[in-house]
From TrEMBL:
EamA domain boundaries: 20-148, 178-316
Organism annotation: Trapa natans
Transmembrane segments: 36-58, 70-92, 98-118, 130-156, 176-196, 208-228, 248-267, 274-293, 299-319
Domain of life: Eukaryota
Major site of localization recorded for this protein: membrane
Annotated protein name in UniProt: WAT1-related protein
GO molecular function: transmembrane transporter activity
PANTHER family cross-referenced by the UniProt entry: WAT1-RELATED PROTEIN
């Protein structure tokens, strides 16, 4: 368990930051800020913050030269991340935050499937560790869906003028079919981003520099989209509103820089499937935070779903620990690995 203790703590912190980002971003967008401009500002500021930190942190690390092929992969990482954010916000606008939160729980399953397809995870049904990871992934997704979609009886209620649960379940008039398809695209892009990032880390094992280039390219790509969609409307680009400024600062520091940086560090040490498994945990954190800090109502469905998610986590972690005892390098992104994943071979051919 020692090998995954650090990444486990890191991913819990990353998911806490993600829940906070979800709250502030929804708050500022409900007051008229464009989601595209929000993505642009937050990633631009994050890139500026990471530029000195990343290169100072890795100044003594021996790294390969930045070839055109490697920069192209950074660009592709940024494109996948940019599209995931754009599709995610658009999907929520067309449908509702309820559907958006539920759809995010598809990421662990999609990531696991992609990891198996591109030979980054072992799928041997005769091994107990493989069965534990597979079953744990399915169980955690089911638990997260229960927390999101099933209320049940109220177990704990506090009076509050603002409830996180009611805020996230705010009904909107929308086209659920289009919204659902956009959210599925968001999950596919996010899963592909995790897989590609694992491949890039093998060639360039410098987490902070990769995150810098990711934010840098997302800023450029979102700027092009913003100029086309938003045009020259000065009010849309304004940050005079204090809430807009605070939200952008939070997103840049704790969203783009901290959360992506920690997730990349954890991915480097455990692999993409382990990182994606923590997506459902964000719902549990949101429910607990809403009950304790915002007076949210704690429902029976939240309790049942949370318990199921915990069971799923223990199953996956047991499987990872079992594999580490057999091979300590299982799941870890190795820069000099002799087994070349299929995705890496395809990228090199391109």
């Amino acid at each position: 368990m020692k090998g995954i203790a650090g990444p486990t703590v890191g991913m819990v912190m990353a998911e806490c930051a993600q829940v906070g980002l979800m709250i502030v971003s929804k708050s500022v967008m409900s007051k008229g800020m464009s989601s595209l401009i929000f993505v642009l500002y937050s990633n631009t500021l994050a890139a500026l913050l990471l530029l000195p930190v990343a290169f100072l942190y890795h100044r003594r690390t021996q790294l390969p030269s930045l070839s055109f092929s490697l920069v192209s992969q950074f660009f592709l990482l940024g494109l996948l991340g940019c599209l995931a954010q754009v599709f995610g916000y658009a999907g929520i606008n067309y449908s509702s935050p309820t559907l958006g939160t539920a759809m995010l729980n598809l990421i662990p399953g999609i990531t696991f499937i992609l990891a198996v397809i591109f030979r980054m995870e072992r799928l041997d049904c005769r091994r107990a560790s493989t069965l534990a990871k597979s079953i744990g992934t399915i169980v955690s997704i089911c638990g997260a869906l229960i927390v999101t979609l099933y209320k049940g009886a109220a177990l704990m209620t506090k009076s509050s003028s603002l409830s996180l649960h009611s805020y996230l379940l705010l009904p909107v008039q929308s086209n659920w079919v289009i919204g659902g398809l956009l959210l599925v695209a968001d999950c596919v892009m996010a899963s592909a981003w995790l897989i590609l990032q694992a491949v890039v880390l093998k060639k360039y094992p410098a987490e902070l520099i990769i995150v810098f280039f990711y934010c840098f390219f997302v800023a450029i790509q979102s700027a092009i989209i913003c100029l086309y969609v938003e045009g020259g409307d000065s009010s849309a680009w304004s940050l005079k509103n204090r809430m807009r400024l605070i939200s952008v600062l939070y997103s840049a520091i704790f969203g783009s820089a901290f959360q992506v940086g920690v997730s990349t560090w954890c991915l480097h040490r455990t692999g993409p499937v382990f990182v994606s498994m923590f997506k459902p945990l964000g719902i549990v954190i949101a429910v607990v935070g809403g009950t304790v800090f915002l007076g949210d109502t704690f429902y029976l469905g939240s309790l049942i779903g949370s318990c199921i998610i915990v069971i799923g986590f223990y199953s996956v972690m047991w499987g990872k620990t079992k594999e580490e005892k057999v091979d300590p390098k299982v799941g870890v992104v190795q820069p000099n690995s002799q087994k070349v994943p299929l995705l890496e071979t395809i990228i090199e051919e391109i």
